[in-house]
Specification:
By secondary structure, the chain is of the alpha+beta class. It has four domains: 72 residues, Beta Barrel (conserved putative lor/sdh protein from methanococcus maripaludis s2 fold), CATH 2.40.420; 94 residues, Elongation Factor Tu (Ef-tu), domain 3; 73 residues, RNA polymerase II/Efflux pump adaptor protein, barrel-sandwich hybrid domain (OB fold (Dihydrolipoamide Acetyltransferase, E2P)); 79 residues, Helix Hairpins (Orthogonal Bundle), CATH 1.10.287. The strands form six sheets. The protein has a six-stranded antiparallel β-barrel with strand order 2-13-17-15-14-18. Strands 3-12-10-5 form a four-stranded antiparallel sheet, with no helix packed on it. The longest helix has 33 residues. The radius of gyration is 43 Å and the shape is rod-shaped.
């Protein structure tokens, strides 16, 4: 018994040591990556570029006064429809004292000239009636009187324009602001009593109103420089407007800017696209929108999940399940991809089951 005990003790130690080594070896071996199988599907794959932007009127007109003064009356409000030449506002003129004094002086001078020309005309007329004067001189005096009378009328009109901004007897109305187009009033940034400045060479003038045709809208957005080279005029777009929910609008690319603008460290190019408004859909100016520019579209093609595709030396392949836990590697030829699904031209059949590796998950500390 004493001879067997040491052997049993040694054997126990060896078994324990061997078991420990076996345990450590198995634990050190990499665990097979978890996976699932996916099947190809027949679907439509669309490759697109996304352009953020807004819905804006194609033509937006800014109305400005032709004289400086104070807004005396506003005849319309934002949101109202307006026709061409319809009255929008009336400006009360605050005359410049230097210009007013000069205009009044010209009126006085013209009145004196008319009075003098009248006396000369009456004197010549009297001499002709007494057969003491020539008809030629009378005609000259009459012409002079007519010219001086016209100068007086012009001086009075100028005085009225300086004082009121209007000379209605000659069809000139400078203190009335009328719409130059038919459309909808989008904005009236001034209020009654506000001071306004006329447009001139040194000042763009105060905006009285903004008018646009809300029946003719476009999408105005921007595309990153990495995608603008793939966009061409005439490409179809699908426009998603945040205010409309899931409602989408159609259109086509009409313009691509030849010059980019830097924004947040990247270069972006402006694009514009037509908008096809559906009946019953109300759009407002500057609605935020995103345009999906359809670069390429393949209808009803066999596609597989991007996660099932592997690459070796740039060549794509998939693993096809022949039986549970037994896969066969096959090379495939790929086509169009939308980032989630990729078209497979050859290499797999519709009823194949493909191995898709699951992303590895890290154990969170408890």
């Amino acid at each position: 018994m004493r001879k067997i005990l040491p052997f049993a003790l040694v054997l126990g130690i060896l078994l324990a040591f061997g078991g420990t080594l076996t345990f450590l070896y198995k634990k050190s071996q990499p665990k097979p990556a978890p996976y699932q199988t996916v099947k190809p599907q027949v679907t439509t794959i669309v490759k697109k570029a996304v352009a953020p932007g807004a819905i804006v009127p194609r033509r937006e007109v800014v109305l400005k006064p032709r004289i400086s003064g104070i807004v005396e009356k506003l005849y319309l409000e934002p949101g109202q429809d307006v026709k061409e030449r319809a009255l929008v506002a009336k400006i009360l003129v605050i005359p410049n004292m230097v210009a007013l004094n000069a205009a009044e002086s010209r009126v006085v001078e013209a009145e004196l000239s008319v009075a003098n020309a009248t006396r000369e005309f009456e004197r010549s007329k009297s001499l002709v009636e007494q057969q003491l004067g020539a008809h030629t001189e009378l005609s000259q005096r009459e012409l002079t009187l007519q010219l001086k009378t016209q100068e007086l009328n012009t001086a009075r009109n100028n005085l009225q324009l300086v004082k009121e901004g209007a000379a209605r007897n000659v069809g000139k109305v400078g203190n009335l602001v009328a719409s130059t187009v038919t459309g909808t009033i989008l904005d009236i940034p001034v209020k009654e009593g506000s001071s306004v400045i006329e447009a001139n060479n040194f000042n763009e003038g105060t905006t009285i109103a903004v008018v646009a045709d809300m029946k003719d809208l476009i999408f105005q957005g921007r595309v990153d420089e990495s995608e603008v080279g793939k966009v061409a005029i005439g490409m179809p777009v699908t426009i998603s407007v945040g205010a409309l929910g899931s409602e989408t609008l159609g259109g086509k690319v009409e313009y691509i800017s030849p010059k980019g603008k830097e924004k947040d460290g990247s270069m972006e190019f402006e694009i514009r696209a037509s908008v096809t408004v559906k009946p019953g859909v109300l759009l407002r100016a500057n609605y935020s929108a995103n345009a999906d520019i359809i670069l390429e579209r393949h209808e009803q093609v066999l596609a597989i999940d991007e996660g099932a595709v592997r690459f070796e030396q740039g060549q794509p392949y998939v693993e096809v399940e022949l039986e549970p836990n037994h896969f066969e590697r096959r090379s495939v030829k790929l086509g169009l991809s939308d980032g989630l699904l990729v078209e497979v031209v050859s290499g797999v059949e519709k009823d194949s089951r493909l191995k898709k590796q699951e992303p590895e998950t890290k154990n969170k500390p408890g």
